[in-house]
Design goal:
six-stranded mixed barrel; 18% strand; alpha+beta; 856 residues; 54% helix
């Protein structure tokens, strides 16, 4: 009997709780049907938040997709690009004999620097690796999608398809001498690395054999050596050993033009994805916080608005728990359904988002369904909103029926009249507007908080667009190069002093520096050596701390190198160049987050390479003096450059047979010199004992004239496109959220003050007067929130991005503070848009009828 009684009591409690939940659930459904418009607005915010959370997952798949594609195509762990005619088969043999090296592959490629474009697009700056489709390669394979046989043209990485390139259309290459080559796009391909359009390093394209031979006849070929390892920890040691071996083998510190490991170029590929991921994380959290605040506001305002209905329910026998749970169930249902719809929408929009990621990373991301993760996100968001809703309903439990039916007053309470109409100064509309502002404190606080968050988000996007798309500080940190309008590359036989003096004599050149580019190993890590004659003239290579070297035993290194070596200012490092070693003291660390650059004075570098000579002169031009004018000046002093001669676009007297012969012979000699790394070549043509023609490579001391500042401008266009689209996207989402939030608040305010507005209408106030009163009463908290959110974003956005990048290894990023115009713009956009939307939403006041209110 006792057992039966206990069991009966237990099941009765369960059934009782089930009845409570069902009653609360039915009340929730009734509330949803009654307040469908406000619920729809809240659901939109939840949908957007869930969609963004799912976008984070898609962004996180970039690294996974990159590694998966690399594994499929046997991507290289380290690549080395040799100068022309500086590769020997012994190099591959040397690497193949090393422990942990699992594969070695060498192939001839063409390096192209210039611009590319299609008939429908503007030229974009690029640096390309052009590979022969017929070359057999075991490392860094190329997956051609639908190859076409017996056709001449090129295949582009899949990212170009996202850029708008189409099969069958023309693809135009233009070099620095304005020489153009037009080829048909035969299709697209997947590559393991260097496939990103917006990357700051090379782009790989594949050419048919005839196209490859045509380009190689003009630009020559270089050897690309790839190797893979089974232990990444051994990579730096193997690479440093090879650098020492190859330099000693060729007695040339410049036999290697480029070298990089997987960790470095994979970071470069996924850089944009990392930035976008950081932005989306912040944005989704902000939207979700807005959703929670709106839930709290709607529940508390709904309780105050429906106190009479709540009191009636309690009088009819409904418990406080049932009524409170009805609000919780209401938001559980809304959140659950909205989360599902947001998840579906995220999958629907995934192809468009993946196209953007392909464009900026070069990685083909396959849309995958991750149901378990989706369920976790849906349940997490629903649970957090349910907890928020439950905490917001505690007020209902504490109030008795009598108190509720008195409008929530515990005792007779006559509130202080903050604005007495008979004593207040100003127009009646202004006074009533101020009165409304002071009466609705909860609404004003909620509005201020929400607008602060929204304004922060908008200003966040605008600052990123300014910081990464307009200003160039971020790219300068990545490139770690001195960017000038006039750069002159010298031949090995050129008289550096004479050319420097001639360039300095130009009244439109206010200063010059001489730079050398060499290769060294530092504590078994291969690095780039930048030798500069006058560090005080540098403008775009910035120090994060310390100073540039002054004495011959001092050196500066990039942040990336310092991090790899675990060294700081004052530490001593050993530098090796072709077997000659010397110790240097670190005096400064530059702000570059990814370069392997080290900086020497000329005397300092000669300690390890006595035969050093500068290879480039950088000229700083006066404002208004263009690169084209500088190039004309160089031509007037030194004649054609080697690159101009090879382009075939120079003019000569076709009627003079000796002039034509000189042009042909000089071009071939320069080509032979560059392709086979010959020091110099001279010739003379004798007829009957008389020298009728003589020349040689020494007649062309200038290899090339170019502008690194223009190169930066080309990269900036890509950044402007990416971050411009992002800023527009954030602006649109922000305006949508403002509209949704205001629609909830204005509607609730109009319903709450419906009786008051009816009375004011009967007293002679027009609909226009009442709309202005309500709209202007919203402006003070909006203006405060907009300004506050913009100020917070102004001070925290770039430090936040810098911190996020440092978590993935990009430390030392420097940035400029955004302009005040950005802050003001965000504040004005939010304020003006809020006023316009609020005024339009108050049109519901038109439908308030005094007669109808009296009748009801």
């Amino acid at each position: 009997m006792i057992v039966q009684k206990i069991s009966g009591t237990f099941f009765a409690k369960i059934i009782g709780k089930g009845d409570i939940l069902m009653i609360s659930f039915r009340l929730a459904l009734t509330n949803i049907k009654r307040k469908h418009s406000g619920i729809f607005s809240f659901a939109i915010i939840v949908m957007i938040a869930v969609c963004f959370f799912n976008m984070i997952i898609s962004t996180g798949e970039v690294n996974k997709s990159f590694e998966s594609q690399s594994k499929k195509l046997n991507g290289t762990d380290y690549y080395i690009l040799f100068a022309p005619n500086m590769y020997y088969d012994d190099f591959a043999t040397f690497l193949g004999s090393k422990e942990h090296v699992t594969g070695v592959n060498a192939e001839d490629i063409i390096t192209f620097s210039g611009e590319y474009y299609t008939p429908d697009t503007n030229p974009s700056t690029t640096s390309m690796f052009i590979q022969n489709i017929k070359t057999e390669r075991s490392i860094s394979k190329i997956d051609i999608i639908n190859p076409q046989e017996n056709k001449s043209g090129i295949y582009l990485p899949i990212a170009f398809q996202a850029l708008g390139c189409k099969i069958g259309s023309s693809f135009i290459l233009r070099d620095s001498t304005e020489q153009e080559y037009t080829y048909e796009i035969l299709g697209f391909c997947n590559v393991s690395e260097f496939g990103a359009v917006s990357n700051l390093s090379q782009v790989r394209i594949v050419a048919t054999t005839d196209v490859f031979h045509e380009l190689s006849s003009n630009y020559g070929t270089k050897t690309l050596l790839n190797f893979t390892v089974d232990d990444y920890k051994a990579l730096h040691y193997i690479e440093s050993q090879f650098t020492d071996y190859s330099s000693a083998y060729t007695s040339n510190t410049q036999c290697i033009e480029q070298a990089s490991g997987r960790a470095d170029f994979s970071t470069a590929f996924t850089l944009f994805a990392s930035i976008i991921s950081s932005i989306i994380i912040a944005f989704s959290v902000v939207i979700f916080i807005v959703a929670l605040i709106m839930a709290i506001y709607r529940i508390k305002s709904g309780i105050d608005e429906n106190l009479t209905a709540i009191g009636t329910l309690k009088a009819l026998g409904y418990t406080s728990k049932q009524i409170a749970l009805s609000y919780v169930f209401e938001y559980i249902i809304i959140s659950f359904i909205s989360s599902i719809l947001g998840t579906i929408f995220s999958y629907a929009s995934a192809p468009l988002y993946h196209k953007i990621l392909i464009l900026i990373t070069g990685v083909l991301i396959k849309s995958t369904v991750h149901i378990s993760v989706d369920i976790i996100i849906i349940l997490m968001i629903t649970f957090l909103i349910a907890i928020t809703a439950y905490l917001s309903t505690l007020k209902v439990k504490k109030m008795h029926v009598a108190v509720i039916l008195r409008g929530g007053l515990l005792s007779h309470n006559i509130k202080k009249n903050s604005v007495e109409l008979e004593h207040a100064k100003g127009s009646i509309n202004q006074i009533l507007c101020l009165k409304h502002l002071l009466m609705f404190k909860r609404q004003n606080i909620s509005t201020c908080i929400i607008i602060t968050i929204i304004s922060f988000t908008l200003c966040f996007g605008l600052i990123l667009f300014e910081g990464f798309g307009i200003k160039d500080t971020f790219i300068k940190n990545i490139l770690d190069s001195e960017l000038t309008e006039g750069n002159v590359t010298l031949d090995t036989h050129a008289d550096i002093e004479q050319i420097s003096n001639i360039i300095s004599s130009n009244k439109n050149v206010h200063k010059i520096i001489r730079i050398g580019f060499e290769g060294v190993t530092v504590n078994n890590t291969s690095c780039n050596a930048r030798i500069i004659d006058n560090f005080q003239n540098l403008e775009t290579i910035n120090l994060a701390e310390g100073s540039f070297p002054v004495n011959d035993n001092e050196i500066a290194v990039s942040t990336h190198v310092a991090s790899l070596l675990h060294k700081d200012i004052g530490d001593v490092i050993t530098v090796n160049s072709i077997g000659v070693k010397a110790d240097y003291i670190i005096t400064g660390i530059t702000s570059s987050a990814m370069s392997y650059n080290t900086y020497f004075s000329e005397d300092g570098y000669k300690r390890i390479y006595a035969a050093y000579a500068p290879s480039t002169i950088c000229a700083y031009l006066d404002k208004g003096y263009t690169y084209e004018q500088f190039a004309d000046f160089i031509y007037s002093k030194f004649g054609y450059t080697q690159s101009e001669l090879l382009s075939g676009m120079i003019s000569y007297d076709t009627d003079d047979k000796y002039s034509a012969i000189k042009h042909i012979v000089d071009s071939k000699m320069i080509k032979l010199k560059q392709n086979y790394n010959i020091d110099s070549m001279e010739y003379a043509l004798n007829i009957d004992g008389n020298t009728v023609l003589s020349s040689g490579t020494s007649a062309y001391p200038i290899k090339e004239v170019y502008s690194t500042a223009s190169l930066l401008a080309g990269y900036l266009n890509i950044f402007k496109l990416a971050f411009g689209l992002m800023a527009i996207f954030i602006l649109i989402i922000t305006l949508i959220i403002i509209t949704v939030v205001l629609s909830i608040m204005v509607k609730q305010t109009v319903n709450t003050k419906k009786l008051e507005f009816g009375i004011l209408k009967s007293l002679g106030f027009t609909t226009k007067d009442l709309r202005k009163q309500l709209t202007f009463s919203l402006l003070p908290p909006v203006i405060v929130g907009a300004f506050l959110g913009s100020v917070i974003a102004y001070g925290t956005t770039l430090p936040f991005i810098s911190k996020m990048l440092s978590l993935i290894g990009w430390s030392g990023i420097q940035y400029e503070l955004p302009s005040v115009i950005t802050l003001i713009s965000a504040t004005m956009i939010v304020t003006v848009f809020t006023y316009i939307v609020s005024y339009l939403l108050t049109s519901k006041i038109k439908r308030i009828s005094t007669y109808e209110l009296i009748e009801n």
